[in-house]
Amino acid sequence: MEHEIPDIVIGRLPVYLRELDRMEREPGKFTTSSHELAERLGISSAQIRKDLSHFGEFGKQGTGYHIHYLIDRLTEILRLTHEWPVALIGAGFLGHALASYRGFQRRGFVITCLFDNDPAKVGETVGELTVRDMSELETGLRAEGIRIAILAVPADAAQATADRLVAAGVRAILSYAPASLTVPPGVHVSYSDPVVQLQQMTYYLLPGGDIGWRDDRRWQGASQGPGKRRSSWNRALNRALLASPAGAKVGRRQGAVVARTAGPAAGVVRGLSRAVCRRRGAVLRPGRGGAAGPRLPLRRQRGAH
């Protein structure tokens, strides 16, 4: 059954667990619902229920989820009922930061060994660890039964180091190296590349420091029908309005996309709305609580900027 569950679903479970941990620390809070989780995480409640349904039934209609019970179940599903020893490869600036980070142990992971191939760093103390020589890698990992490793080495050394990790019994690698790794079946690799993540975000930024969304020329394609065009408008408007501290809701009213917000973010969204409207030729409509939201035509007008 586990192998049939999509990776993207598994990837959301730790996010749910993190938010549930926060909820449990709130005084007097014992239950939650998929709708409350959805509001906190920006994920649809239907998606949350579908994700959890892969692993059984956790809540009851009308009463929601018992927070502590759901935490226990997700902890079991993610195999976090015990601490996992982790090897850290690379004692550079990033390696120093990772070795000193206390958040790992609070969530079930303990960095137990640190390796580097620089003779000047071998023997150095980083936090509670002593940097060991890479010549001891295989022996050390096998002796400690380590199956998880963090890779913080340069790109040109990443593949060779990953090969050695796999040969020593490592089956899960978190790589900070800016390079794609080739590993055999049964070995899972996750990547964390801040540059790639920043490049993804710049796609959505408008020139000149204005808030809004990218003018995606694909919206003008003849192959896109009205439904796809409407979906693009909703996604784009959501991205723009999520810049508001309180967020905003998007819906359709009489053939137009309407965004509304209320509360302390109203002024922010009103300013944002005016900028959006100037670009799209839209008209501001009053929203709930006196806040204004933009009313945008579903179809992008030719020549609009």
Structure description:
The protein is an alpha/beta fold. The chain has three domains: 2-77, Arc Repressor Mutant, subunit A (Orthogonal Bundle), CATH 1.10.10; 84-195, Rossmann fold, CATH 3.40.50.720; 207-297, no CATH class. Helix content is 39%, strand content 20%. The chain has helices at residues 7-24, 34-41, 45-53, 67-77, 93-100, 103-106, 137-144, 155-167, 194-202, 226-241, 266-280, and strands at residues 31-32, 59-60, 64-66, 84-89, 109-116, 125-126, 129-133, 148-151, 172-175, 188-191, 249-253, 256-260, 283-286, 292-297. The protein has a seven-stranded mixed sheet. The chain has a four-stranded antiparallel sheet with strand order 11-12-14-13. The protein has a three-stranded antiparallel sheet with strand order 1-3-2. Helix 1 packs antiparallel against helix 4 (67-77) and helix 2 (34-41) crosses helix 3 (45-53). The radius of gyration is 24 Å and the shape is globular.
Keywords:
single chain; alpha/beta; Rossmann fold; 3 domains; seven-stranded mixed beta sheet; four-stranded antiparallel beta sheet
The backbone outline, from C-alpha atoms, is: globular
Total tally of structural domains = 3
- Structure annotation, total helices: 11
- The CATH H-level superfamily of the largest domain is NAD(P)-binding Rossmann-like Domain
Helix content: 25-40%
Q: Order of strands across the widest beta sheet?
A: 6-7-5-4-8-9-10
* Overall mean pLDDT: 76
Low-confidence stretches: 213-230, 243-272, 276-305
**What is the CA-CA span between the terminal residues?**
49 Å
**Multimeric organization:** single chain
Strand content: 15-25%
CATH architectural arrangement of the largest domain: 3-Layer(aba) Sandwich
CA-based gyration radius: 24 Å
Quote the CATH topology of the largest domain. Answer: Rossmann fold
